[in-house]
Structures are given as C-alpha cells and as structure tokens.
Specification:
Elements: E1 5-11, H1 24-28, H2 30-33, E2 39-40, E3 49-50, H3 60-64, E4 70-76, E5 83-86, E6 93-95, E7 105-109, H4 116-123, H5 140-146, H6 151-161, E8 166-169, H7 176-179, H8 184-191, H9 197-203, H10 219-231, E9 237-241, H11 249-260, E10 268-272, H12 276-282, E11 285-292, E12 296-299, E13 303-304, H13 305-314, E14 316-317, E15 322-323, H14 341-346, E16 349-352, E17 354-359, E18 362-366, E19 369-372, H15 387-394, E20 402-404, E21 415-418, H16 430-437, H17 439-443, H18 445-452, H19 470-483, E22 488-491, H20 500-511
Parallel strand pairs: 6-12, 7-10, 7-11, 8-9, 9-10, 21-22
Antiparallel strand pairs: 1-4, 2-3, 5-6, 11-12, 11-13, 14-15, 16-19, 17-18, 17-20
Protein name: ABC transporter E family member 2
InterPro entries: 4Fe4S_Fe-S-bd, 4Fe4S_Fe_S_CS, AAA+_ATPase, ABC_transporter-like_ATP-bd, ABC_transporter-like_CS, P-loop_NTPase, RLI1, RLI_dom_1
Keywords: ATP-binding, Nucleotide-binding
C-alpha cells in the first residue's frame, strides 16, 4: 500500500498558534518518539513544520491539535511527478495545468480554493511554476524541459519569447473601486486599444452609467465594467475569473457573447465559471479541477463541454478511474406534491398593499398581493428593476412614498434580511459574531445539523470576519440570516461567489 500512496501534510498558517498550545502534535507523534524529527515545533516558532517523507500518516496529530490546524491527506503516487506549483512547506499544492488552445475558449470548473486562480496566474506568466521545489525553484529552461511534448511547451515558449500580453479580469469585482479612480468613460478611453468602446458599451449596457464614478457602481455594473475594460484592450491571452457573478440571466448571455467575440486564430481565452449553464454556452472545451480545498488541486485532461460538465456533476473522472466526490450533484425537478386546499387554509396569510417608491429618477410600483408561510417564493427580474427595493420595503427598512388601498396595512413582520452586498465590519472572529447575533440557534442541535454543518461554518469559527473570502462571507451571512427567528427570511442573491456544489447545498439549506 505504501508504494502507491504519497502523503501531503497541510498546516494552516491562520490556525496554527504554537504560543497558545502545548505542542500536542509533536508530543503525540509516534515517529518523534522513535527519535526522528518528523514534527518540528517550539513554543517560540511561528508555525509547526511536518516532514512529509518521515510522516507515516497515523493521523494522531490531526486529532490532537486543539486548533484543528493540521490535515494529512493521502494522494496517489502517480500525482507526485505531476506537481506544478507549491507555495511553501506544508501548504497548497497544484498538480498539472489546464491546456489552452489558440482560437478556442477553455472553461475551468471546480470548487472554491482548489487552485483555479493559481492556475490562471501560472498561465498568465504572473507566477513562475516551481514544480513543487519551493527551496530551489527551477529556471525557465528546466520548466520548458519538464513540459516538453505537450501543448504547454509551445505555450510557455510563446510567453517567454513573443512577450504574449495576458489580462486577467479579477474574481472579486467589489475590490475594483479601491484600485481604479475616475469615471467609467474616462477609464475605458484610456484602455481602448481596439476602438471597440462604443460597441462594447452598447452590448454590456454601460451607456447609462458612462459618466458615473467607478466607486458609485453596483455589483453588476462593476462586473460589466470590468469585462469591458478587459475586452477593449489588445492582448493574446484573455482570462475571466467568474464573469457572471452579480449579473442577471440576460446580462450573463450578453457577457458570454462579448467573451466569445474576443477569439482570434492566435489568441487564447480562459474562463473560470461556477454557473454551469453559462459555462456550457461559453466554452469550446473544459478542464475540471478536483481535490481538497486549501490542500491540493488536480487538473483533469481537457474534455468536450458536455462531457466535462457531466463529469463534474457526477463526481467521477473516467479517464483516471477516480471518484472525487461521494455523491453526484442532481437537480430534482419537483419535490413537493401539490398541497390540498385544506392544507393551504391553515397557513397564515400576509397581505401587502399597492405601493410606490421613487428613488432619484427610478420609480417602483408594487401591485398588492399576498403570500403564505412555509413557502419559498422566487423573485426574478433584471438587475436595477427594484427587486432589492421591494424586499427592503417589505422588511420595513424603506418607507413607501404612497400606499393605495388604505384598508391593507403593511403587516408587522419579524424579518431576517440578508443584503446583496456584504461588507464585513465586525472586529472579532466568526465565533463571536455568531455568539453575539444568534446565540440561541447556534447552540441548538438541529440548527447545527441543518445549517451550520452543510455550510461548513465550523471550519471558519476562529477566523477573523474581516479576513474571510467572498464565498466564506456569503456562507456566514446566510447562516446569520437563517439563524434569526423570524416570520420571513428575505435572502438577496444567495449564490454570488459560491461554487456549484455550495450553491446546491445553500439551496437545500434554505429549503429546510
């Protein structure tokens, strides 16, 4: 058995705190007891070091560590020679690379934290792959020799010799205002190298916001602006990291058309996307990534679009005969049988009146209606048509300007509201946040099994709220919202920044 498996030890730098513990990992390790230096750590050190060659994979240190900072993972031996990049000792490790082809769109699909953004950085030439040798990184000549005989050899040679220009559209568009000053039109004019500005602005509906400051744009507008900034520039490699978050369905297809319009016979387009329908529409072929988030990631061979998406959903790679997820992701069509009229009578009814609300030159008119409890109602509509405004009026956060039909009051609800844009201002850890906001539910066994376990909140408990990534914030916000006892849960865009697996989990959690 030991010949076939190779081990990686991951020590989380956020969690490992040798000053606060008694070095349980080192004291309990059977290899250390025989006198070998398998785990090296002292009270003064920053982080524990685990030697992967000496480790026997007993997993005792994993259980003993009070902060749950250690993961020991067995990998197939044949992956060992395929290591592309490793950040440092006991850190994340990426195996293989996706293979871009000129004149085609390559789609990447996989969960969060599995190395898609790392792969993009390597392919853009922004990160030099060290082939897993972080102590003495190889020079480019060695790297080219390593990739010889594959399409990647030509690709890297072109990057080195012809100075291919690569542009990445970043994943988190809400960080753009911190880096870019000025109004939308000016920024696009500065970057415009292909004289495409007017066409792109029409395609991406940016003409309404052309005079606005970048800092005043909403999430969807920022996303379209970011896509436009990449598309007006002249480059050989275009990379889009999640081009569809914050966009509505119509805009997603428009954005996809813009991305496809960048194809030229000698240019590469690479897209990372969690919305599988957009990915299907956009790509010519697909590489899946599997592994363990934050520990290691493996890139599969390229598949055709249909095959690639089905492999990702099934959780099984036939070419490597490998199952990377316990259950396949399925979409059930109708779970709830039609409820009888008597059942519906027993539900509490909430009515709301016809109301209007004007904000600036935008006017929203709501026709009166009603809803019952134990229902999930989905609101569909384009961005900027007032869905969030309507939700906030129901929540009582905004007063309507006029109410017609005075016999119906806006009922008093206990409302739990998850906003569309989440900004972390809480100064302490996630545990304190949950403790101060929803103490009763987060102690409650059923809430833990229904909401916290599936959303993997346990792993985030000791992290500072301010340092969480987009997807982690989204999960914490969803947990807070569902933890508050209320008559109505108003949830605005619960799927932004979550990957396909987490979206399905989130929808199941909301259903409960």
């Amino acid at each position: 058995m030991s010949e076939r498996l190779t081990r990686i030890a991951i020590v989380s730098s956020d969690r490992c705190k040798p000053k606060k513990c008694r070095q349980e990992c080192k004291k309990s390790c059977p290899v250390v007891k025989t006198g070998k230096l398998c785990i090296e750590v002292a009270p003064a050190s920053k982080i524990a070091f685990i030697s992967e060659e000496l480790c026997i994979g007993c997993g005792i240190c994993v259980k003993k560590c009070p902060f749950e900072a250690i993961q020991i993972i067995n990998l197939p031996k044949d992956l060992d020679k395929d290591t592309t990049h490793r950040y440092g000792p006991n850190t994340f490790k990426l195996h293989r690379l996706p293979v871009p082809r000129p004149g085609q769109v390559l789609g990447l699909v996989g969960t969060n934290g599995i190395g898609k953004s790392t792969a993009l950085k390597v392919l853009a030439g922004k990160l030099k792959p060290n082939l897993g040798r972080f102590n003495n990184p190889p020079d480019w000549q060695e790297i080219l020799t390593y990739f010889r005989g594959s399409e990647l050899q030509n690709y890297f040679t072109r990057i080195l010799e012809d100075n291919l220009k690569a542009i990445i559209k970043p994943q988190y568009v809400d960080h753009i205002p911190k880096a870019v000053q000025g109004n939308v039109g000016q920024v696009l004019d500065q970057k415009d190298e292909r004289d495409m500005k007017s066409e792109l602005c029409a395609d991406l509906q940016l003409n309404q916001v052309i005079d606005r400051n970048v800092g005043d744009l909403s999430g969807g507008e920022l996303q379209r602006f970011a896509i436009a900034v990449v598309a007006v520039q002249n480059a050989e490699i275009y990379m889009f990291d999640e081009p569809s978050s914050y966009l509505d369905v119509k805009q997603r297809l428009k954005a996809a058309q813009v991305v496809r319009s960048l194809l030229r016979p000698n240019s590469y387009v690479i897209v990372v996307e969690h919305d599988l329908s957009v990915l299907d529409y956009l790509s010519d072929f697909i590489c899946c990534l599997y592994g363990k988030p934050g520990a290691y990631g493996v890139v599969t061979l390229p598949f055709s679009v249909r095959e690639g998406i089905n492999i990702f959903l099934a959780g099984f790679v036939p070419t490597e005969n490998l199952r990377f997820r316990d259950e396949s992701l399925t979409f059930k069509v109708a779970e709830t049988p039609q409820e009888s009229a008597e059942e519906i009578e027993t539900y509490a009814r909430y009515k709301y009146p016809t109301m209007t609300k004007t904000q600036g030159n935008f006017r929203l008119r709501v026709v009166e209606g009603e809803f019952t409890d134990s229902q999930i109602i989905v609101m569909l509509g384009e961005n900027g048509t007032g869905k969030t405004t309507f939700i906030r009026m129901l929540a009582g956060l905004l007063k309507p300007d006029s109410v017609e039909g005075s016999d119906v009051e806006i009922p008093e609800f206990n409302v739990s509201y998850k906003p569309q844009k989440i900004s972390p201002k809480f100064p302490s850890t996630v545990r304190h946040l949950l403790h101060s906001k929803i103490r009763d539910s987060y102690m409650h066994a059923q809430f833990v099994s229904d909401v916290m376990k599936p959303l993997l909140i346990e792993q985030l408990m000791d992290q500072e709220v301010v340092n969480l990534s987009g997807g982690e914030l989204q999960r914490v916000a969803l947990c807070l919202c569902l933890g508050k006892p209320a008559d109505i849960y108003l949830i605005d865009e619960p799927s932004a920044y979550l990957d396909s697996e987490q979206r399905i989990v989130a929808s199941k959690v909301i259903k409960r």
